[in-house]
Structure formats: structure tokens, C-alpha cells
Amino acid sequence: MKQKVFIIGFQKTGTTSLEHALEHLNYRVHGGDKNLMKFEDKEALKSYIQETLKTWDAVQDMPWPLFYKELYELYPDAKYILTIRDSKKWIRSVVTYFASIRIPLHQKIYQVPCAEGYESRYLEVYEKMNTEILAFFKNKPNFLVMEMGVNFDYTTLCTFLNIETIPEDAFPHARNNKKRKLPKYKLYRDLRSLYWNYKKDY
């Protein structure tokens, strides 16, 4: 059984790249789980987490970062990785990707309708959560901060996970293709938001 690895960074901070890297290292990675937001009873939440993670080695994506304390109570010896990026770059990426799509999970997290037009609230939640996580894990040896553009590499990851054989492959990263360039145009974002809000009945 592998030691659990919990990626507790927000979306658009390289979490998908890190997921692919962990999978390359033969970790079974569980993605975002909306069911986490349904529990009002803390013990019921912890039971759900334990049951869910029986078949997974690692987790990433929202809303897992919101439950770092519960994860630590259950798995104090696990490895915790906070992924971060510059706040201005983060919110620009969030707005470019999510635009005005009214995602219910995001509404619960940020308490506003959508990302575009509510950037200050998104930034407030993002920065506050990162500050709290950094304070909570201060001086804990099983905690690592991986910052996009700084130390996103296999050497950093494998050293932290005590993996001796470091892959020679390039660290996974999102492809800069035409599909990813289109959301930079506001008209495209608006049309895409209308489509998804209608399709999902948001």
C-alpha cells in the first residue's frame, strides 16, 4: 500500500499536471468529489473520506483542499502538497477557463455566481485558504509547496515522496494549443458560458 498523497492546491495551480505526474509514478489518483460538500456532520464526512480513499493513493482537484484538516486528522502521516501560483496569473487563468459558467460547486466555495465579474471574491478565498494551509502545516516534514514555474519537476516531487528513480521524462504540462487560446477572447467565453449554463441548467 502506497503512502497517501494529498494535493491541496486550488484548481488552475497545476493540479492536473501533478495528477499526471503521480499517475506516471503508478499512483492511483482520485479527482474532485462534489459529495464532500454534502456533509454537515464532521464524523460522517470523515467516514465517507475513509471509505472513498480505500481504493485510491492520492487526491487532487476541488473541493479536496477545503478539507485538509479532516484529511490530516485521518492521515497524519500522509504526504501533503500545496500547489500555488502567482495570484494575478491564477485569477486570469480561472476567468479564462471558467468565465461566466455558473458552476454550483464553485458557488458553494466562493459564494458568488461565477468567476468573471467576481474576481475579487475568488482571490479573497484563494489567498485566505493558502495562508491558512501554510500556517497549519508550518514546520511539518510531510508538507511540500510546489509553485508553478518554480519547482514543478520530477526531482522535487520524487525527493519529497522518497522515490529514488526519478523519471527522465518532461514533467506533464497543459498543451498550448488553439483550443486553449480561444477562451482568451471574451466573446468566445460569453458564448461558451451561455452554452454550458443552458446545457447544465445552471
Radius of gyration: 17 Å
Strand content: 5-15%
Counted beta strands? 5
Low-confidence stretches: none
Largest sheet: spatial strand order = 2-3-1-4-5
SSE pattern, N- to C-terminal: EHEHEHEHHHEHHH
CATH superfamily: P-loop containing nucleotide triphosphate hydrolases
Broad shape: globular
Distance between the termini: 40 Å
The structural domain count equals: 1
Helix-and-strand structural type: alpha/beta
Q: What is the third-level CATH name, the topology?
A: Rossmann fold
* Percent in helix: 40-55%
Main pleated sheet: 5 strands, parallel
CATH class: Alpha Beta
How would you describe this protein?
The protein has 202 residues and is of the alpha/beta class. The chain contains nine helices and five strands; from the N terminus they run βαβαβαβαααβααα. It has helices at residues 15-24, 42-52, 68-74, 87-98, 104-110, 119-136, 154-160, 178-181, 186-199, and strands at residues 5-7, 29-30, 58-59, 79-84, 143-147. It has a five-stranded parallel beta sheet with strand order 2-3-1-4-5, sandwiched between helices. α2 (42-52) links the parallel β2 (29-30) and β3. The longest helix is centred in the middle third of the chain and has 18 residues, at 119-136. The model has no long low-confidence stretch (mean pLDDT 90).
